Amino acid sequence: MRVLLVDDEKDTLRAMASFLHYSDVEILPVADSVEAGRHITTRAFDAMIMDIQMPSPDGLELTRLARRSFINRRTPIVLITGYDDLETRRKGWDARATCFAGKPITPEKIRGIVRLLLGSVSPDQIIRTRLPFRTQVNCRWSCSGAKSLLAESLDLGQGGMLLEPSGGMTVGQEMELEFHIPSLGCPLLIHAKAVRFEQPDQMAVQFLDCTDPDYKAVQSYITKRLQS
């Protein structure tokens, strides 16, 4: 497996490379994003792990470059960011990044990413999967006063879920969701938005923002279900 590591902070780059000196992983660490762009267009990689914030081209621009290239258009791309906010994630999804890793980067975190990439379930498959999933979901929103709805989920994906009933909400309505995932003791709290309605009274919601532990809990649940 060949992995491209890109970070303009050389100490961080050396640390990430040292975390991955094991098994059959071939590491190409690059501190210059312009040089990284040349590698992306001329060499095939099995995965890329890149910092978002760099002098131009930054991680988002390099991701777009990879998606335009023939040899790396399907390569899993992990973007590293110190800003765990909705706008950063939206820009990453728009650039077609596979997933995100928050700073600080630890040996456990970077090795976990590579174990996921080396496994039988690809990050791209995790993102696109919608699993049948039944649980009660408490929905709360504000529209002329605080309102709430106890719904039931029908499916779950990394980016959202399907609920019923809709409770009279409209497309674009933002809400707070609270629900449990099996084997996880604490409930997940996720900020979401209604994006479409299906018959007879079902509502598709998109996850907009959540904490890293909640995001990883959904990702881990989907991965285990796909591997079982």
Describe the structure.
The chain is α/β, with parallel strands linked by helices and 228 residues long. The chain contains seven helices and twelve strands. It has two domains: 126 residues, Response regulator (Rossmann fold), CATH 3.40.50.2300; 97 residues, predicted glycosyltransferase like domains (Thrombin, subunit H, Beta Barrel). The strands form two sheets. The protein has a six-stranded antiparallel barrel with strand order 7-8-9-12-11-10. Strand 4, helix 4 and strand 5 form a beta-alpha-beta unit. Helix 2 runs parallel beside helix 3.
Instruction: Write the CATH homologous superfamily of the largest domain.
Output: Response regulator
- What's the architecture of the largest domain, going by CATH? 3-Layer(aba) Sandwich
- First CA to last CA: what distance? 24 Å
Q: Any idea how many domains? A: 2
Low-confidence stretches: none
Net shape:
elongated
Report the CATH topology name of the largest domain: Rossmann fold
Number of strands: 12
The CATH class of the largest domain is Alpha Beta
Summarize the main sheet.
Answer: 6 strands, antiparallel, barrel
- Please report the number of helical segments: 7
Alpha-carbon Rg, integer:
19 Å
Write the H/E string, N to C: EHEHEHEHEHHEEEEEEEH
Provide mean pLDDT, rounded. 84
- Percent of residues in β-strands: 25-35%
Structural class: alpha/beta
Spatial strand order of the main sheet: 7-8-9-12-11-10
Helix content: 25-40%
